[in-house]
Amino acid sequence: MRDRFRRADRGVSITVTHALTIAITTVLIAMLLMAGGTLLENQKENSARLSLETVGERLSDELSNVDRAAIGTNDEVTATADHPQTVAGSSYTVELLPASECGDGRFLDGSTECLKLTATDADTVVYVPVKIDAEIDDDSKTVSGGTIEIRHRSTGDPTTSEISIHGGTR
């Protein structure tokens, strides 16, 4: 009976069990951290996309309102719109594009002008349709989020006009 307790391999099973438990736990924790990081990144991109769509829809309405307000006048109409400077912790840019340059986004049929909103840190691009009768002025700029100035001017003929966006001065 004493020989049974003298075997040297009894303690090995406990050591191996602990080592395997620690290894498996480490692998599981690493996998959870990686999955959590991916989930957060996806949530940030979704948040940026939704925020850009909201800002784009508001700016689209403002452009349409300025365009309607200037119909039939030779006056220059200027409006300033305040929007968030960042979306989902990322700065963004806004560009007014003619229909020929708009992507194949939702609600774009190739005959409607659009706004292209790009979040710089989230790699997110959103196209929002804009209903305007005016032509897009060559002077229109790519502007950063925040205060945006909308300019509508007549070309001399009351039936034609140009609209543009610029960075605000506030």
Automatic annotation (TrEMBL):
Region named Disordered: 150-170
Keywords: Membrane, Transmembrane, Transmembrane helix
UniProt keyword annotation of Transmembrane helix present: yes
Matches recorded under InterPro entries: DUF7266
Residues spanning the membrane: 12-40
Lineage: Archaea, Methanobacteriati, Methanobacteriota, Stenosarchaea group, Halobacteria
A Pfam family that the UniProt record links to this protein: DUF7266
Species whose genome carries this gene: Natrinema pallidum DSM 3751
Name under which the protein is recorded: Uncharacterized protein
